[in-house]
Design a protein that fits this description.
Elements: H1 3-29, H2 36-43, H3 47-54, H4 57-80, H5 86-97, H6 109-120, H7 124-150, H8 159-178, H9 186-201
Helix pairs in contact: 1-2, 1-4, 2-3, 4-6, 5-7, 5-9, 6-7, 7-8, 8-9
């Protein structure tokens, strides 16, 4: 590895270190009570370096959520990689979505989504990023549905409409899980989401 490549790798590692720290701090304290200095301290870097990479606190939130989302999708890919059945893939995706704990020591992705939603209501930039991330999530589900329809496992529901409906249901349930609602346990949320899948797509999951 040349000196330039090593420097680039070092920069990537520092950026990842900051994003991981930001996800953890925001998850613990909330976006409103998180300062760039708090993230810098958790990451073990200077405040100036955080500003150099991300410029503003709002951008740091968006990138921290992207980082958390990437970790979530990596966990999904790892879990779904050994499943050949689209029905089994969708079931596993729903189960992972209802899991309140995060991956790799980070807070659950839904905790950061709550922060992004509150910002997206007021800030056009955050709203645009929210739309992009939501589209990515819906397309992941729609892709599984299309594969299941091609293999004969799923019925003729519109993949995009179903993905939008399932995402809305999972979002609503995840908010209740993140808030610690005693009536909306991860198990109950999973059962309700799977009832929707069975109703719309047809397979008799066990």
């Amino acid at each position: 590895m040349g000196a330039e490549a090593a420097a680039d790798r070092g920069a990537d590692l520092r950026r990842e270190q900051i994003l991981r720290a930001a996800a953890i701090v925001i998850g613990e304290r909330g976006f409103g009570d998180t300062r760039i200095a708090d993230v810098a301290k958790r990451a073990g870097v200077s405040t100036g370096l955080v500003i150099y990479y991300f410029r503003t606190r709002d951008r740091l939130l968006i990138e921290a959520l992207r980082y958390s989302e990437d970790a979530f999708y990596a966990a999904i890919s790892d879990r779904l990689g050994g499943l050949t059945s689209p029905a089994a893939q969708l079931e596993s995706l729903v189960r992972l979505s209802c899991e309140p704990r995060g991956v790799d020591g980070m807070p659950g992705t839904w905790v950061l989504w709550l922060e992004l939603w509150s910002q997206a209501v007021r800030h056009p930039g955050a709203s645009k990023d929210r739309e992009e991330l939501d589209s990515r999530w819906r397309e992941r589900i729609a892709g599984i549905v299309r594969k299941g329809q091609a293999s004969g496992e799923f019925g003729p529901a519109d993949p995009e409409d179903f993905a939008m409906m399932l995402c809305a249901v999972l979002d609503g349930l995840a908010v209740q899980i993140a808030l610690g609602d005693s009536l909306v346990t991860p198990e109950r949320a999973y059962d309700l989401a799977m009832d929707l899948c069975r109703e719309r797509l047809g397979p008799a999951w066990t």
